[in-house]
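Severity: low
Component: inverse-folding endpoint
Summary: output formatting inconsistent between runs
Steps to reproduce: submit the following C-alpha cells with default settings.
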C-alpha cells in the first residue's frame, strides 16, 4: 500500500481513483466541486482534501485527470497546486490529454522541485476507466515510470513508456487522429448501406469479421445505426484533442487533411447542439 493523491474526479478520474482504493492504496482525493468528492467517499475508502497541495502532502504518487492545459497548470503549479505539497522524489502522473508543450513545461518545473513528472494520457473511454481496462501512453524518465507502473495498472490493461516527457501526449494525438478518420469512415459506410437498403446490423456482423473490423465498429456501429449518442466521449472533448493535434502538426510539418475535415464536421455538430453527444454522432450530418 502506498500513499496516493488523485486530483480530478470526472467521468474518468472517479473510477480510476476507485480502482486505486480497491487495490488497497491510501487514497486522498481532491475535486473542485466538493460534492463530487463526497460522493466518491460514499463508494470508496479514502480521504478528501480541500486543495491539491493538501491532497499531495505525504503522497508518494500524485495523479491528475482534469480538463485541459490550463486546468493541469492550475492543479499542479498554481496557487495551492500539488507541486508545492509534494516531497522530494515523489512522482506526479498526469492523465489529462494536453499539449506536449505543457507536459514538457511541467516536466521541467517538476525536476527543478526535485520531483518527477510523467505525462500519461489514456485511451478507452469511460467504460475502460470503469472496467480498469485503459491503455496508458507515458512520457518521462524510465526510472520514475518503473516505480509507478504497477500502481497505474490498477486501472489499465496496457501501460507503455513511449519516450521522454511529452511523448505520451504525442502518442495520444496519433490515437485521436486515427479515431477521427475511423469514425467518419464508419459513419459514411453505415449511411451508404442504409440508403442502399441493406440490413445494416447484418452487414456489420459480416464485415466486422474481416479487414474493416475496428474497436469503433465493435462498440459504436450498433448505437450509430439506432441513432443513440447520449453517452461516451463527448464531441467537445474530441474537438479539444483534435485542436491539440492540428496545432502540433503545424509545428512539425505533418499534413492532416482528414483530421482537419472531421474537426470541421465536429464544429458543425457543436453548432447544432451536440456538444455532449458521443463522437460517433458524425453520422447525423449524413442522415440530416
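Observed output (run 2 of 3):
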Amino acid at each position: 500500500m502506498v500513499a496516493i493523491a488523485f486530483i480530478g474526479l470526472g467521468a474518468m478520474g472517479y473510477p480510476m481513483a476507485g480502482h486505486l482504493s480497491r487495490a488497497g492504496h491510501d487514497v486522498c482525493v481532491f475535486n473542485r466541486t466538493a460534492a463530487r468528492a463526497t460522493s466518491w467517499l460514499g463508494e470508496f475508502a479514502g480521504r478528501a482534501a480541500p486543495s491539491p497541495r493538501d491532497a499531495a502532502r505525504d503522497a508518494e504518487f500524485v495523479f491528475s485527470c482534469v480538463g485541459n492545459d490550463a486546468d493541469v497548470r492550475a492543479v499542479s503549479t498554481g496557487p495551492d497546486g500539488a507541486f508545492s505539497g509534494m516531497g522530494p522524489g515523489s512522482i506526479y502522473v498526469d492523465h489529462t490529454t494536453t499539449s506536449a508543450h505543457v507536459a514538457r513545461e511541467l516536466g521541467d518545473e517538476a525536476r527543478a522541485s526535485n520531483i518527477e513528472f510523467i505525462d500519461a494520457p489514456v485511451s478507452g473511454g469511460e467504460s475502460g476507466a470503469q472496467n480498469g481496462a485503459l491503455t496508458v501512453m507515458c512520457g518521462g524518465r524510465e526510472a520514475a515510470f518503473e516505480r509507478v507502473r504497477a500502481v497505474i495498472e490498477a486501472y489499465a490493461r496496457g501501460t507503455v513508456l513511449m519516450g521522454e516527457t511529452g511523448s505520451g501526449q504525442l502518442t495520444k494525438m496519433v490515437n485521436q487522429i486515427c479515431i477521427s478518420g475511423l469514425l467518419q469512415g464508419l459513419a459514411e459506410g453505415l449511411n451508404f448501406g442504409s440508403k442502399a437498403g441493406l440490413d445494416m446490423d447484418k452487414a456489420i456482423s459480416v464485415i466486422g469479421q474481416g479487414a474493416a473490423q475496428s474497436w469503433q465498429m465493435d462498440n459504436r456501429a450498433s448505437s450509430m445505426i439506432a441513432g443513440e449518442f447520449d453517452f461516451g466521449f463527448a464531441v467537445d472533448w474530441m474537438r479539444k484533442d483534435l485542436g491539440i493535434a492540428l496545432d502540433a502538426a503545424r509545428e512539425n510539418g505533418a499534413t492532416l487533411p482528414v483530421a482537419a475535415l472531421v474537426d470541421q464536421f465536429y464544429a458543425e455538430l457543436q453548432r447544432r447542439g451536440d456538444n455532449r453527444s458521443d463522437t460517433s454522432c458524425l453520422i447525423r450530418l449524413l442522415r440530416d
